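Hello,

Our lab assistant flagged a job as stuck in the queue for most of the afternoon. It eventually completed. Since we weren't sure the result was trustworthy after the delay, we are filing this so someone can double-check. Below is the sequence as submitted and the structure that was eventually returned. Let us know if re-running is recommended.
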Amino acid sequence: MRTQEFLALAGLLLLAACGDRGTQESAAPKATAKPAADGPVRVALIMKAQGNPFFASMEKGARQAQKETGADLTVRSTSEETAIEEQINVVEGVVHDGTQAIVIAPVDSHRLVPALKKAQDAGIKIINIDNRLDAAAMKERGLTPPPFISIDNERAAYRSAKYIADRVTKPSEAAIFEGIRHAANANDRLRGAQRAFAENAQVKLVATETANWNVDEAYAVAKPMFAAHPNIDLVFCANDMMALGLIRYLKEAKRHDVRIASFDDLEDARRAIKAGDIAVTVDQQADKQGYEGVMAAVKAVHGEALPKEIQLDAALVTVDSLKSK
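-- returned structure --
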């Protein structure tokens, strides 16, 4: 082959190769997280139920971490704690907006996994706080388990329910108001309360119903529950919002003999403890969960190794502990 013909053929082959590569790249674009060196780390804190004071406290802690790290923090919440699709849409919405890390308190431990897998595949770091993602769902979808930051929900619920169960010296009936049944923390709290009640032979658990963390649902659930079991005198509520809904019903029914154990340490719950309407609640440090979540997110984006789990302390809040402060 002559030199000129060889050069011409080589040029054509080179152009064809470049054209093929360009077609492949444009056909399968992949979102990637913005490099940390380009500026402040962009973090999205995605929570539940913007009207719940627990998550307002969580945001407060996250904002403190923002100040300390200089992170570019965006805070998103759902309209209510059962808004699973809404939270999924929020997660999917941040995948292409330059977010580098997601700190999430999942509404549902199973159904958020596919959306978070998309985010992780796009190079976004995931930090799981408050409610643990389901291990089997993560394995099935191929989501690398993210660091988890929370308390030991089962142990804390056990201690809360045990606080009222230990004071029982005669036959008594108990009930449990559960959270969302697809949420790991709700299931942990249910098991903890069941174990506490079971340890006292004088206590018989007669009713377990979900009120989905919601004050109005708890009020509605209480009416048929107490109609069916009028002798209930012990109740564990898996969060303070449900306890407040139960209290509303009990006041209307003129029931003043029911001892309530709760969870979350909201300001309204503290007032109810001082008034004698709630016996105990659990401080699970929502602000610290938000703080540690954002701190972990910034570290992850900068390539720092993180522990698989950061377990925070939980404390019982009673009338005695409030007096000591």
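-- support follow-up --
The delay was a queue issue, not a problem with the job. The result is valid. The chain has two domains: 36-150+285-312, 153-283. Confidence is low (pLDDT under 50) at residues 1-36.
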